[in-house]
Amino acid sequence: MLHLHTLAAVLFTASIPMGSQAVAVPPPDSREARALPDPEHSHHQLTPINKRTAQEVIAQLNLIPNVEKGYFVETFRDTDNVTTTSGGTANRTASTAIYYLLEGSEGFSRWHRVDAVELWHYYAGAPLTLSLSHNDGSPIREVKLGQDIFDGQHPQLHPGSTPPATKWLKLTGLQRELETFPV
Asked: Which domain of life is it from (predicted)?
């Protein structure tokens, strides 16, 4: 099972300063926009990510082992810093983004927490369950991450269910025989 954590949610953004005039930009070439093979390079074959092995993805994204199980790589670190309010007066970076992959043989991640709010995005593969706990005797809340929105799965943890920094969490794959990636 293959789980990617916090992949880019926005593929393209453009900001226009206040008071500026918007400039019309022609759309990209349709082959480029839909990622269709270029006829001039037809010897290159596109392989869907769900047809790749976990080890292929680990190698392609340069992922390294994570202490919570699985593999990760940081892909973004904000240059702005903030002062945390929930753990003292420590300064930390305002935001980061990572890829996180949990291989099928791993089964689940360890219970852990981070000192920031997390936003999870699911992209491909078998669905997974994100278990959330306050570690105070209250029931564990489970949210399914996946692409089947008609079966109660969420492609993104929406703001109302984004885990606060004080919650404990773990990931569990729902279909161990498949390789999976999300978020």
From this structure: Eukaryota
For the chain, domains (ranges, CATH) are 49-181 (2.60.120.10)
Residue type (1 letter), 100 = Y
Q: Which two tokens stand for residue 155?
A: 């492609």
Question: Is the Cβ–Cβ distance between 170 and 108 less than 8 Å?
Answer: yes
CA distance 176 to 40: 39
Q: Does pLDDT of 142 surpass 70?
A: yes
User: How far is the C-alpha of 96 from the C-alpha of 4, rounded, in Å?
Assistant: 15
In this model, does residue 41 exceed pLDDT 90? no
Looking at residue 121, the DSSP 8-state letter turns out to be B
Q: Per-residue pLDDT tens for 24-34?
A: 344 444 444 44
Inter-residue long-range contacts of 155-164, CB under 8 Å, 24+ positions, other chains counted: 155/121, 155/122, 155/123, 155/182, 156/9, 156/119, 156/120, 156/121, 156/122, 156/183, 157/118, 157/119, 157/120, 157/130, 157/183, 162/117, 162/118, 162/119, 162/120, 163/117, 163/118, 163/130, 163/132, 164/117
CA dist 46 and 31 (Å) reads: 13
Per DSSP (E only), the strands in the chain are 64-65, 71-77, 81-83, 91-93, 96-101, 124-125, 128-133, 141-145, 168-173, 180-181
Which amino acid would we find at residue 179?
Answer: E
